[in-house]
Amino acid sequence: MSNKKTDAEYKQELTDIEYRVTRKAATEMPFSGKYWNHWDQGKYRCICCGTPLFNSGTKFDAGCGWPSYSLPIQEDVIAEHRDTSLGMVRVEVRCKNCDAHLGHVFDDGPQPSGLRYCINSASLKFEPSNQVELNNPKE
Q1: Closest by Cα among 52, 46, 45, 39 to 23
Q2: Contact present, 117 and 70 (Cβ < 8 Å)
Q3: Phi-psi label, residue 97: left if phi above 0, alpha if psi -120 to 50, beta otherwise
């Protein structure tokens, strides 16, 4: 069962950049987001619905100015869509639960996946690992 919010609810709950990125598919400026150079241990969740998306253990420095991950927490949390905007073909990634725009995935990441999930900081909320262990040790 899905708990979808209205556009007005998202606009009220999110900051301007969070709303523009997640609901209107904008892209934050490189090297400007709060998580591009963030290396604490924990989980990165969807800012809109709280779905766990990425673990800090799969984060790597791609040098692109956005947080980059080699794999999502689980395959079924990310939806992929063909994106032909800006005169190029890319693969857009969205939260499968609430359809928030997250960023794009490219095939130039590290092994073993070879993937780089290039994600906007504005689409994420970080949860430190000690908080994860205290709140839900099985998740």
Answers
A1: 46
A2: yes
A3: alpha
> How far is it, in rounded angstroms, from Cα 136 to Cα 118?
27
This prediction's pTM: 0.89
pLDDT the model gives residue 138: 41
> What band does 139 get if pLDDT is binned at 50, 70 and 90?
very low
Every domain of the chain and the residues it spans: 7-135
How many CB atoms are closer than 10 A to CB 20?
Answer: 18
Distance separating alpha carbons of residues 22 and 48, to the nearest angstrom: 8
pLDDT tens figures, 20-65: 999 999 999 999 999 999 999 999 999 999 999 999 999 999 999 9
Cα within 13 Å of Cα(73), Cβ side: 15
Q: Does domain 7-135 have CATH number 3.40.50.1820?
A: no
Residues identified as active-site: 118
